[in-house]
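User: Reviewer 2 asked us to show a designed sequence for the structure in our supplementary figure. I'm pasting the structure tokens here. Could you produce the per-position amino acids so we can include them in the response letter?
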């Protein structure tokens, strides 16, 4: 119920096994449901067949009912049921005068002529405050209407007994409380007060006319000044203005790239020519990887960028834009910012902020002209990376499993703040699933054992990779090395045996270049986290949220529970 009075979703009727509009109840053998309904009360109860499981239901701030299931050995809650499935089906989710876009991942937008009521709430993920008018109405005949096509009508229409579209429009204009009207085969409908539950749909839909102030209809159009002039004067003036505009366009586009208008939210759609010019014909390469090469570039406003030319990406334009727009809304201090993209013909490129301090890999293993990272910096970098990955796993609308966490994919900004990179090339997993089967492979030395076993990959694969990388941050050594006799040397096994089995101090595995200068408590926590993260069984590893809490000193990790093997 919305505001305790209006039904916005129903389970349907009980048929003895489950509710008619919740087919998941019948297909899931985990629960034994029963339903009681009489003149005094109606309620549902359920029992779990497996006593090693726990379940809970909740209604969250979006208005969705969600059911979670937890296996005792994994200690993780997995989402197994979500109703209504689309946020656009939640009554008044986008608030007054807000429109929910079913085409673009249930995003909320203000109607034309309106603006967000509270940007603060919107940035915190709560769009229910809706929108307010940019310009107050003049009332009666001074107002006008804007057409909104492909629309699912708002709630609470009021029928009007008029016989034409013109009369329907007049009926709305003559009442200052009327904010919209529609006229179709069923007649005239009027809407008074706040417009709630408007949806933009992909196919079909109806035409809705939104009432706005006159200035909103004419916005963007220059008013004509009526003066008696000759046809020749008008023609000459227009020709002159045309030549001036052409000259300005040629001058502005000679040897430079303009920054296109933002699209797909805050992202910029660059043309191939834009990025070719910005990168000086892709002349300065910053690095290469499995998905392509990265080049340095500079925009006309002197902003430095990194342009990634993708190789082997075969999505169509619509799918590519959709995935990029999903990536583009992700904002976190420890995740590299996506500025824009290029999708032109078969060319696919991503544009990121430029990171002047290169990758973590460079600082750990190729220091030559670089200053050695102190322990304090290393620890802060480790915490920052963990926060970034935890955000991808636990706080995004969609789970994002990175699939290739390693020092090369951790970039450092001017302040040596770590930024998780290449996360946009990972598999996007909808929140209603907790795992994904994928053919993507990581990098030898960082890959979790389940990659080679053929089982489903979960966020715990990233946890394993993080643990392997954390060993390298601690030691300054590569985890996997080939000895002269051809045998592999696995540093985590050696380190764990040295500290756990032999009882050596944890300082014995610290990077020798630090000369023992490290906080012992922090070093101990980092070592224990690294050991816990690389457990062979995925269910025995912590979540990235737990990793953050341990590194911040909010949780303890018991060294006795770890078992480190040399399996890769």
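Assistant: Here is a per-position design you can include in the supplement:
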């Amino acid at each position: 119920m919305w505001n305790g009075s209006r039904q916005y979703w129903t389970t349907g009727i009980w048929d003895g096994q489950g509710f008619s509009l919740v087919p998941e109840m019948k297909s899931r053998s985990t629960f034994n449901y029963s339903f009681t309904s009489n003149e005094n009360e109606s309620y549902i109860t359920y029992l779990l067949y497996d006593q090693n499981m726990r379940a809970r239901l909740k209604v969250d701030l979006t208005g969705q009912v969600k059911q979670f299931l937890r296996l005792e050995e994994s200690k993780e809650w997995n989402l197994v049921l979500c109703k209504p499935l689309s946020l656009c089906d939640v009554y008044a989710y986008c608030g007054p005068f807000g429109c929910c876009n079913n085409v673009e991942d249930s995003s909320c937008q203000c109607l034309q002529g309106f603006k967000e009521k509270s940007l603060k709430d919107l940035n915190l993920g709560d769009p229910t405050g809706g929108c307010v008018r940019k310009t107050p109405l003049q009332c009666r005949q001074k107002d006008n209407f804007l057409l909104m096509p492909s629309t699912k009508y708002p709630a609470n229409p009021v029928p009007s007994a008029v016989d034409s579209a013109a009369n329907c429009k007049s009926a709305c204009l003559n009442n200052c409380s009327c904010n919209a009207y529609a006229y179709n085969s069923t007649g005239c409908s009027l809407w008074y007060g706040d417009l709630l539950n408007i949806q933009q749909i992909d196919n079909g839909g109806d035409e809705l006319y939104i009432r706005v102030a006159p200035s909103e209809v004419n916005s963007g159009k220059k008013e004509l000044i009526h003066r008696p002039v000759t046809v020749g004067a008008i023609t000459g003036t227009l020709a002159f203005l045309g030549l001036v505009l052409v000259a300005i366009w040629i001058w502005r586009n000679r040897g430079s790239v303009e920054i296109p208008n933002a699209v797909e939210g805050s992202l910029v759609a660059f043309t191939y020519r834009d990025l070719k010019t910005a990168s000086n014909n892709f002349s300065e390469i910053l690095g290469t990887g499995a998905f392509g090469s990265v080049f340095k570039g500079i925009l006309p406003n002197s902003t430095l960028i990194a342009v990634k030319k993708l190789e082997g990406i075969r999505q169509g334009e619509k799918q590519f834009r959709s995935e990029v727009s999903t990536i583009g809304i992700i904002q976190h201090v420890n995740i590299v910012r996506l500025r824009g993209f290029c999708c032109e013909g078969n060319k696919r490129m991503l544009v990121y902020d430029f990171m002047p301090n290169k990758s973590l890999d460079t600082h750990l293993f190729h220091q030559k002209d670089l200053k050695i990272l102190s322990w304090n910096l290393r620890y802060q970098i480790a915490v920052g990376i963990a926060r970034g990955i935890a955000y991808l796993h636990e706080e995004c609308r969609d789970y994002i499993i990175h699939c290739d966490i390693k020092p090369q994919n951790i970039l450092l900004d001017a302040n040596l703040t770590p930024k998780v990179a290449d996360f946009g090339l990972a598999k996007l997993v909808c929140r209603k699933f907790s795992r994904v089967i994928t053919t993507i492979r990581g990098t030898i030395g960082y890959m979790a054992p389940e990659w080679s076993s053929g089982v489903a990959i979960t966020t715990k694969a990233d946890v394993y990779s993080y643990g392997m990388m954390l060993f390298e941050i601690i030691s300054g050594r590569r985890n996997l090395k080939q000895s002269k006799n051809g045998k592999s040397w696995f540093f985590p096994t050696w380190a764990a045996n040295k500290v756990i089995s032999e009882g050596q101090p944890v300082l014995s595995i610290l990077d020798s270049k630090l000369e023992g200068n490290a906080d012992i408590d922090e070093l101990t926590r980092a070592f224990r986290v690294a050991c816990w993260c690389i457990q062979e069984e995925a269910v025995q590893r912590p979540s990235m949220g737990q990793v953050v809490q341990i590194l911040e000193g909010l949780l303890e990790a018991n060294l006795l529970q770890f078992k480190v093997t040399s399996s890769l």
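For the response letter, you might also mention the following. The chain is about 25% helix and 25% strand. The radius of gyration is 30 Å.
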